[in-house]
């Protein structure tokens, strides 16, 4: 009976996995189809996911498009996402360490104030942030894309849960051995939270890689634009070139898939541990 239950569970998991992966497979297959074939096969058959006529021209048209410099979009997004991720890990780790291990006046109140920011929708802050970027003269610059994203309230909360689990005795022993507070933080506290740091890094990188609304608002220069806004330029009042859209989306997905494949073990571990700590 138990064996039958396991087989049924396995079949259900395979079906769910296939349903989840099917849109991605269709996107990749569509990126290799000529435009006239793209919506020709809509019924459930082998050609729904396997092109009849294979072509790489869609990728050529996307990469070597003079009007929409797609490689420039990728570089902009890679640079912004990497810098934001590095700054988020540094700043949020220090803030989380302060909330978890340091003693200062009004700490519960300040922490509660930080956590209250999680209930504020991001759309509410768009206009104030835009006006601030305008007053600082940062529109159409990397600063407008990077600096407002340096702080993650959720990241502080998650890292605080990990740092709180580090025994105070270890920190006291380090201080007795002559280690300063920054050295204790780097040598003892941070290594204990590597899964959480990698998880937060992946979430931050992915969030900035997929960012659309904020870059659309603060960046008007085509050469400074991010990849998701760049993909949207293949749609216009004249219509949508779906072959280019699918090819561009396929190209934009590759870095994220590679990053997740290399770090998925730490990501899963971080998510699992964050659910049982605290």
TrEMBL record:
This is Sugar ABC transporter permease. The keyword Cell membrane applies. The keyword Secreted does not apply. PROSITE patterns: ABC_TM1 (PS50928). One of its GO terms (cellular component) is plasma membrane. Residues 74-263 form the ABC transmembrane type-1 domain. Keywords: Cell membrane, Membrane, Transmembrane, Transmembrane helix, Transport. It is a multi-pass membrane protein. It comes from the Bacteria. It is found in: Cell membrane. It comes from Paenibacillus ferrarius. Gene3D superfamilies: MetI-like (1.10.3720.10). The chain crosses the membrane at residues 7-29, 73-97, 109-132, 144-163, 184-206, 245-263. Belongs to the binding-protein-dependent transport system permease family. GO terms for biological process: transmembrane transport.
């Amino acid at each position: 009976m138990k064996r039958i239950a396991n087989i049924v569970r396995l079949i259900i998991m395979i079906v769910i996995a296939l349903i989840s992966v099917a849109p991605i497979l269709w996107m990749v297959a569509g990126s290799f189809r000529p435009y006239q074939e793209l919506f020709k096969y809509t019924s459930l058959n082998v050609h729904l996911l396997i092109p009849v006529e294979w072509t790489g021209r869609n990728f050529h048209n996307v990469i070597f498009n003079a009007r929409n410099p797609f490689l420039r979009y990728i570089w902009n997004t890679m640079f912004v996402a990497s810098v934001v991720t590095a700054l988020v890990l540094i700043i949020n780790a220090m803030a989380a360490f302060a909330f978890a291990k340091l003693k200062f006046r009004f700490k519960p109140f300040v922490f509660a104030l930080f956590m209250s920011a999680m209930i504020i929708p991001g759309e509410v802050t768009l206009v104030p942030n835009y006006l601030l970027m305008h007053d600082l003269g940062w529109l159409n610059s990397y600063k407008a894309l990077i600096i407002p994203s340096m702080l993650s309230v959720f990241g502080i909360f998650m890292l605080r849960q990990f740092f709180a689990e580090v025994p105070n005795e270890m920190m006291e022993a380090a201080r007795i051995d002559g280690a300063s507070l920054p050295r204790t933080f780097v040598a003892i506290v941070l290594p204990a939270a590597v899964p959480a740091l990698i998880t937060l890094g992946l979430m931050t990188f992915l969030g900035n890689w997929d960012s659309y609304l904020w870059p659309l608002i603060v960046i008007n220069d085509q050469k400074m634009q991010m990849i998701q806004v760049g993909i949207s330029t293949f749609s216009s009042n004249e219509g949508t070139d779906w072959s280019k859209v699918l090819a561009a989306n396929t190209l934009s997905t590759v870095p994220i898939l590679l990053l997740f494949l290399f770090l998925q073990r730490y990501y899963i571990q971080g998510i699992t541990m964050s659910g049982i700590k605290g």
